Amino acid sequence: MPVKYALFFTRVMITLFLLPWVMLRFTSPEAAKGIASKYYKVSALPDIVNTGIGVLWLVLLLAFITGFQKRISYALVLALHSFGTLMTLPFLIPGRENFNILFMAALPTIGAMLLLFTMRKQDTFLSLK
């Protein structure tokens, strides 16, 4: 299989991984606020800010899935996801009381994002120039 197809598949899978979290801001704003409060230590997030973050993420994911401005969109997705994962570090350490194995899925996703960013010039299938 040519690399361009594998990179496209990676782009689609990363988008599908992130999309439910973004859509949660629109479908269940209270749940999104609860997650922000519990895991990211952001409390009292106004609805307009929550929705604004969701809109910005949707625009970013649209740029990402279409391969638009790869250097910027791929880097932003990688940086934002990595920062969010870093904020949940206490839930990623095995043996700790609040360890949650489901959070471990974020780690290989960061690897896939880094790979995609590194190989962005070869990611040409269904990708905007």
Count of alpha and pi helical runs: 5
Mean pLDDT: 94
Q: First CA to last CA: what distance?
A: 22 Å
Largest sheet: none
Poorly predicted regions: none
Helix residue percentage: 55-70%
Transmembrane segments: 48-65, 72-93, 99-119
Keywords: Membrane, Transmembrane, Transmembrane helix
Protein name: DoxX protein
Summarize the structure in words.
- It is a single chain.
- With 129 residues, this protein is mainly alpha-helical.
- It has one domain.
- Helix 1 crosses helix 2, helix 1 packs antiparallel against helix 3 and helix 4 packs antiparallel against helix 5.
- The longest helix has 25 residues.
- The two termini are 22 Å apart.
- The mean pLDDT is 94.
Name some characteristics of this structure:
membrane; 129 residues; transmembrane helix; mainly alpha; 5 helices; transmembrane; 68% helix
Helix-strand layout with pairing:
Blueprint: H1 3-27, H2 29-40, H3 47-66, H4 70-87, H5 106-118
Organism: Hirschia litorea
Transmembrane segments: 48-65, 72-93, 99-119
Keywords: Membrane, Transmembrane, Transmembrane helix
Q: TL;DR of this structure?
A:
With 129 residues, the chain is mostly helical.
